[in-house]
Structure to design on (63 residues):
């Protein structure tokens, strides 16, 4: 499971989303690299989503 960044984040909407995204990806049998290729997102961006990091709206999309 994803490690929590801080106790304050536990239960936040961002943290719940992060855990659900990872659960769905893992249940589909995809690696982050596979999902990134299929969804046309940068792998590091998807990793940051799955760890609940705060992201700017401009990050993520490839070309």
């Amino acid at each position: 499971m994803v490690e929590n960044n801080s106790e304050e984040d536990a239960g936040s909407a961002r943290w719940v989303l992060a855990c659900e995204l990872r659960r769905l990806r893992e249940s589909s049998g995809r690696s982050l690299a596979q999902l990134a290729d299929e969804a046309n997102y940068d792998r590091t961006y998807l990793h940051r989503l799955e760890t609940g990091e705060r992201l700017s709206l401009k990050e993520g999309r490839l070309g």
User: Anything to note?
Assistant: The chain has a mean pLDDT of 84.
